[in-house]
Amino acid sequence: MIEVRELTKRYGSTLALDRLSFHVPPGRVTGFLGPNGAGKSTTLRVIVGLHSPTSGVALVNGRRYAEISRPLHEVGALLDAGAVHPGRTAFKQLACLARSHRIGSARIMALLEQVGLQDVAHRRIGGFSLGMRQRLGIAAALLGDPGVVLLDEPVNGLDAEGIRWVRGLMRTLAAEGRTVLLSSHLMSEMALTVDHVLVIGRGRLIAESSMEDLARRFRRDILVRSPKHLELGGVLRAAGMSVSFGPRDALTVTGADTATIGDLAAERRIPIHELTPRDATLEDVYLEMTEEAADYRAGGGESR
Amino acid sequence: MIPTTPRTAPPRNVAAEVSALASVLDAVAAEWLKLRTMRSAWALSGGAAVSTLIGLVVIMSHVGSYDQATPQEQASFESADPAVAVMPLVAFFIGSLSALAITTEYSTGSIAPSLVAVPRRRMLLAAKTVVVTCVALACGVLFASLSQIGAVLILGDRPAPLNPWAHWWEAVPPATGTAVTTLATGLVALGLGTILRSTAATVALIGALTLVVPMFAHMLPEPVHLWVASVLIPNLAPQIAGADSAYLLSPPAATAVLAFYVVVTLAAAGLSFSRRDS
């Protein structure tokens, strides 16, 4: 369980986090979504004590991170896959962290095998691709078999197989009852991985909901195709729906659900060839929500 | 699949099961592993070894010149003291190695995973201090002993002023003094590295403290030169050893000055490390 209360972080004149509050319960994958510069990484860094908040608190299992003596057994974090000594081997990199918690070589080798790095365990990290470093970072996060897992942009640099593997891993960890917080600036990534999403922009929480609710909230309209589209349009309008006629046999309907349209058409024996609810894509939803909160935009430079 | 344990209950409090001492010892072991898995640390130790050898070659050449000189010239020869010819360079290399114990973590960003593993910053800095103390002291004793033993063997029974010691055992206090100043250089370097967070800046500063400033201090007018030179780290070695020198401090005063360097730098480092974001 992660709990963040009224977290504010100021770097000089820049307000990185602005009274941010949320909690992340165990047993589900929670996405932490926001544009670049929204404050996601800062929040994660405050949670694990790398940055101290200007005000507010971040608690893990009810305690500040620095109060935990053997934190790798409670919290695993991947903050920056590039933050490794390039001259060390993958095995030694994990061993340096594991030694502080008396985690043995067998666990390190098992993790390297599971993340697919067993063949390069004794090769220097300097020669690793970003994807390999991400896998090593995930192995480091899971060293202590922690109940809370924080991953900052874990799919960066991974190939399609790697992305699918991370998704499966996140879901397994959550299904085991762990608290999983996954940050990303890619809504499409979130849509496929997380159960619940926290949307952040300019250091503030913009929205918090389940992925399903988020999609529902931004449902746009229903596309209906029928050979008797003119007749059906009249029926639907008479039922109080907003209807616009599209090309050929298409209707675009808002203010109703698919079941009501289907029932009305059936009552009047009007054949329906297509009935498709059209949602805003999650990318659209995300861009709409974060539009005001984006720090930097192409062509526009710094927005503040 | 990843070897993890299903969590049907809240995670057990592992922290309660380990003592603070065990945590510190494990942090020290982790820091030792970090240092010895850095190639640059071995390269710098090699640099200290090579500079010891080069220093002995220089002494050998000095002795060769002495042997070919006339008695009048021999009477004005400078002493072949490895504390001057060898140990400042050794201290520079060991200081640089000590600085890397923290500056490498900042340059690679690996300070973040280190602090995630050991979030109590004073404990992490203490663990690094213990490792640097052991390494710098061991290297100081090793290279001071090797250089003194080498110098005693090269000098043989040649007299003063070339030979600084009438008997071999008189070489022990100066060797102890240089070993102690090498240790202090290492600790000061660790402290400076923690504050500066930059390998280049810290190594440059250590180079200035051990090599450049002592060299240029001679250019200062008397008695300022003597005051300044007496409190420079490399020059504290003969004063701590109570050896004959032109410097001003008694052994206890020289030891206190050396301790002052270490305590002030490490205290500032502790403050900086605890308060700044990483």
Which descriptors would you attach to this protein?
A: 304 residues, alpha/beta, Rossmann fold, Alpha-Beta Plaits, 2 domains, six-stranded mixed sheet, four-stranded antiparallel sheet, 10 helices, B: mainly alpha
Report the radius of gyration of chain A as a whole number of Å: 24 Å
Helicity range of the residues of chain A?
25-40%
Main sheet makeup of chain A: 6 strands, mixed
CATH architecture of the largest domain in chain A: 3-Layer(aba) Sandwich
What order do the strands of the largest sheet of chain A run in, or round the barrel if closed?
A: 5-6-7-3-8-9
**Structural class based on helices, strands and sheet pairing of chain A:** alpha/beta
Task: Say what oligomer this is.
Answer: heterodimer
Question: Which sequence of SSEs, written as H and E, runs from N to C of chain B?
Answer: HHHHHHHHHHHH
Largest interface: A-B, 55 and 44 residues
The biggest beta sheet of chain B is recorded as: none
Number of domains as seen in the coordinates of chain B = 1
According to DSSP, the number of beta strands of chain A is: 15
Integer-rounded radius of gyration of chain B: 22 Å
How far do the termini of chain A sit from each other? 34 Å
Number of strands of chain B: 0
Overall pLDDT score of chain A: 89
As residue ranges, the low-confidence spans of chain A are 299-304
Secondary-structure element order of chain A, N to C: EEEHEEHHHEHEHEEHEHEEHEHEE
Structural features, described:
The complex is a heterodimer of chains A (304) and B (278). Chain A folds into two domains: 2-215, Rossmann fold; 219-279, Alpha-Beta Plaits (2-Layer Sandwich), CATH 3.30.70.100. The longest helix of chain A has 16 residues, at 160-175. The model of chain A is unreliable at 299-304 (pLDDT under 50). Chain A has 304 residues and is α/β, with parallel strands linked by helices. In chain A, α2 (90-99) crosses α3 (105-114) and α3 packs across α4. In chain A, strands 5-6-7-3-8-9 form a six-stranded mixed beta sheet, sandwiched between helices. Chain A has a four-stranded antiparallel beta sheet with strand order 11-12-10-13. Chain A is built from ten helices and 15 strands. In chain A, β11 and β12 (250-254) form a beta hairpin. Chain B is an all-alpha fold. Chain B has one domain (21-275). Chain B has twelve helices and no strands. The two termini of chain B are 33 Å apart. Classes of the chains: A alpha/beta (304), B mainly alpha (278). At the A-B interface, α2, α3 and α5 of A face α1 and α6 of B.
